[in-house]
Amino acid sequence: MSSTESPPSRTGEIRHDAVFDRWVLISPARSRRPSDFKSRSPASSSNTNPKPSCAFCAGHERECAPEIFRLPPASTTDWKIRVIENLYPALSRDAEPSPSPVDGLLAAAPGRCAVTGFGFHDVVIETPDHSVRLPDLSLAEVGEVLLAHKQRILQLARLGSIKYVQVFKNYGASAGASMAHSHSQIMGLPLVPPLVSTRLDSMKKFYDMTGKCCLCEAWSEDILVSETAHFFAIVPFAASYPFEVWIVPRDHTNHFHEIDNEKAVDLGGLLKLVLQKLSKQLNDPPYNFMIQTAPLALSSSCAHYTHWFLQIIPHLSVIGGFEIGTGCFINPVFPEDAAMVLREADCS
Amino acid sequence: MSSTESPPSRTGEIRHDAVFDRWVLISPARSRRPSDFKSRSPASSSNTNPKPSCAFCAGHERECAPEIFRLPPASTTDWKIRVIENLYPALSRDAEPSPSPVDGLLAAAPGRCAVTGFGFHDVVIETPDHSVRLPDLSLAEVGEVLLAHKQRILQLARLGSIKYVQVFKNYGASAGASMAHSHSQIMGLPLVPPLVSTRLDSMKKFYDMTGKCCLCEAWSEDILVSETAHFFAIVPFAASYPFEVWIVPRDHTNHFHEIDNEKAVDLGGLLKLVLQKLSKQLNDPPYNFMIQTAPLALSSSCAHYTHWFLQIIPHLSVIGGFEIGTGCFINPVFPEDAAMVLREADCS
Ligand SMILES: Nc1ncnc2c1ncn2[C@@H]1O[C@H](COP(=O)(O)OP(=O)(O)O[C@H]2O[C@H](CO)[C@@H](O)[C@H](O)[C@H]2O)[C@@H](O)[C@H]1O
Ligand SMILES: Nc1ncnc2c1ncn2[C@@H]1O[C@H](COP(=O)(O)OP(=O)(O)O[C@H]2O[C@H](CO)[C@@H](O)[C@H](O)[C@H]2O)[C@@H](O)[C@H]1O
């Protein structure tokens, strides 16, 4: 924030996020008007010239790490989606899975506990065409990308050694993307990650207090962005990031990979629309999306309170020392205001 | 990572961080050689011309929000450090503190819990001179900056309404700094932030397993960067970020603000040295530092296992969807390798 802008008068709040059990400082005094909150580094600026040497483009398949599957399955040069191994994987599918359960290892070496870097790290090439972005696809095609995620999760779920699968997308350099060609990533992890445990604990706390699932209760007109037959998109009440959007299934469902073809197309349409709205209102911002689902093995008691959702975070502000130190976020835009800006965007 | 670099052969590990209870993927296959891991956007590139209009410069005091104190206290034009109110505060010192304890409020409105945005947000101007960076100060002067932090914490601690004080510094635009003039920030919070609770729980777990404080046990030759009479600097065994450094007091101490003048100068010297080493080996990278201390009110049982430290994180890689989704980090540089690169940097 430069010293020349004058702060608006609406007073801030500290809101509690019931899904992640964290506090968010909603601080309008830090921002300009919500509608002025555009990205200063649009993602598209880094992807204007199609790169003839891009390994993800059709015709360059041999420059990639091995393919896991493609869609349509029998396609040759006319594939639409490819799921491949990551050439620089953060985890190795060839490492030995750790033999003992993690808790036992921790007790044996509490200050220096390490396990092998076993796991899966795959890339989903979402289109053969370098110049096409995810929301440029038709809603059915976005649905097919989501079904490719599902298919790969089901494969990984068959391995007992994988406990959690994280699907995510980085779009634009400041959201982490090193490849400009439209893609997402899938990581199969040998343990349940800390934020997933925190999320489950927090949703359990809400359930214990109310007898209800906190995401089943999250729909509200003032924070609504858009909705379809099977999903609704909201700016969550205690959004950590300005213009953060969650797409939530209406039905209480634990796992993303329970989605069927009809719902995948429905979700594809809503995801496409939300990405178009963000792009239009915020100048094509870099973003991440994460599929927030449940661990592969889930006890029947957890099933009452875990509910998957798709979290979309545009990159409009920088994480600084306060957020790294405290785990609290500072959001300069009231979620109700952000929802209104997105609701009003006409992308038909 | 571009597709033209070939990955090295050392295999990865998944390491457990006993202070934050999180898992870190140490993934050398993602990186080049550790010594090549330089910042591509040195912070200094954004601060070459002294800005005549900078409100933090000597002579521009009247462009700032009100002063809280200055050092030396009776100085007029020749001040060395000023602690001022933040002009665009994320929390408001004029708001009413929330009357009830937070747990009660949560139970009353579990999905829509909000409290007033009460709290303190201050700025510490670390030098009157626009062109001077923190490590350009003498070790005694860096020590005085730390004593200014201490003095302000002690003031906030006298207010019963403040539960935790976060001191942090953002250096360089990609670490969040919007002002180039050397400064740090202090926020007084009406609640204990989530990451602080997680840290305390995790250190308690270690203590319950071993009877020891995990930071008292953290010193180790292979991860040592440098040490002084009262402090040691290490790259932690399960560093979340490449070249992350922790400066830890040798004596088991709960609160940063217990530091005395002699130790502050000692710490000032070590902080200056570590920042110089990072700058030299990594091309003046943007960084954050956070003072990780205990809540102001601490039960006597917690005192056994909480131990403050100063966490320094250079910004060399981008947080992507994987980290946001899981709370796990991917660190491409083995902590032992990073420590060696920093240990060997000659900054005398
Ligand atoms: N020829 C080829 N065949 C197969 N795969 C290829 C390939 N060429 C490149 N790749 C892989 O394609 C992936 C592209 O992924 P992204 O651009 O989304 O981000 P990346 O994983 O690099 O890092 C971002 O996301 C991660 C995870 O969130 C963060 O840790 C990191 O800092 C951030 O920059 C890379 O993982 C790369 O290894
Ligand atoms: N004349 C004046 N008088 C008094 N104060 C003045 C002033 N002019 C400016 N200021 C204040 O000085 C501070 C400078 O702080 P930094 O440059 O470290 O980062 P900032 O707080 O802007 O945001 C970074 O840090 C925060 C917290 O980590 C992140 O939320 C954010 O995204 C990131 O960019 C700002 O907070 C600003 O409000």
From TrEMBL, chains A, B:
Binding annotation for Zn(2+): C54, C57, H130, H181
One Pfam short name: GalP_UDP_transf
Keywords tagged on the record: Carbohydrate metabolism, Metal-binding, Nucleotidyltransferase, Transferase, Zinc
Cofactor: Zn(2+)
Name of this protein: ADP-glucose phosphorylase
Single Gene Ontology MF annotation: UDP-glucose:hexose-1-phosphate uridylyltransferase activity
Transmembrane segments: none
Cofactor note: Binds 1 zinc ion per subunit.
Residues covered by region (Disordered): 31-51
